[in-house]
Amino acid sequence: MDRQTEITLIKEIIGLAQQKSAFLDDTIAHSPISRYSSPERFERERAMLFRRKPVIAAQSSELEGPRSFVTRDYLGLPLLLTRDDEGKVSAFLNVCRHRGARLEREKAGCKRVFTCPYHAWSWTNHGELRAVPQEAQGFPDLPRAERGLRRLPCTEAHGFVWIIANPDAAEIPDIDAWLGGLAGDFDWIGLADHRIAAIEEVHVAANWKVLVEGGLEAYHFRVAHKNTIGPYFPDNLSTYTMFGPHLRAILPRNAMPDLRDTPEENWQIRRDANILYALTPTTQMLVQQDHVMWFHFEPLSEAATHVRMATLVPRSAPQTEEMQAHWEKNQKITVTALMEDFELGEEIQAGFASRGNPSHLFGRFEGALNRFNIAVEEIIAN
After folding, report:
1. What is the pLDDT of residues 297-317, one digit of tens each?
2. Which residue among 35, 260, 327, 377 is least crowded, i.e. fewest CB within 10 A of its CB?
């Protein structure tokens, strides 16, 4: 984010506060309930969105150092993510190419060679077949080159490991192009130089879009979060900008409208606002004063989502007990507020069966929710 953009966004918030107005789209909008409750719709999203577009599989610090690895299940795929001696990250299916057993059972570690627990076939962290016990007798004509681990398109950018969750995909698009202009913001944040300081994972009985939508408006803050974060934010004051299918929202704290009495050279958007980046389909990053909250939504079905919630902190920050306590305190504050949203999300999902509403109704100050859904619709239509 350049300085002029920062000033413009703060002026926009100050202007809305002076007008006593929310940021308004032209019209209200409707979102059909089938978007959130239909198994057929979910399968289309899986095929056209989650398996075709770049998704984040891990944060870079989860693969710390040469020969590190992590295993993960994502969208029904068992993943093995590795970093080689040169620092390059690769993504494979965590499946033995002999009889299909799970190749690596540990969640994380450091290995150069992965050996199947069934028959001891082994592969390097580049995915190359290394050894086959009794190969000469049992597999005299084995085409070794064809039995490397199944590779997924993968790249590392802005502190994350990105994949196409489809081993049949040819390559992964340029991530900066996919981000639609947000790469400069992530460089401004220094996102590539962050690590995970705290992380929690939960299962939520709600559609992934219900959970994403919960973070895209400030209309609910004073009600749903009245005893947690609500008192620290103006009522229903925010703005948003689309970047292709992605979104940046500014969520000002109470102090930002008062900046009109402060010289512009002293304005700092991170000091007086949270900045939310919603990356379609399943990543949100909430930029706060000294850290970034990373929310990763893994859709499990039309009515279930696995969520990872992590505090990302600058690698340059002191790694002391005092600082770790600070990060964990902030993690708890954010997770507490999110769990309030998730409880509402589960109630919303349960209410779909009643057919009480044929659609959600998005007010003019909930336009970001509509634009997010339009972006999803456009992707799964092609």
Report:
1. 999 999 999 999 999 999 999
2. 377
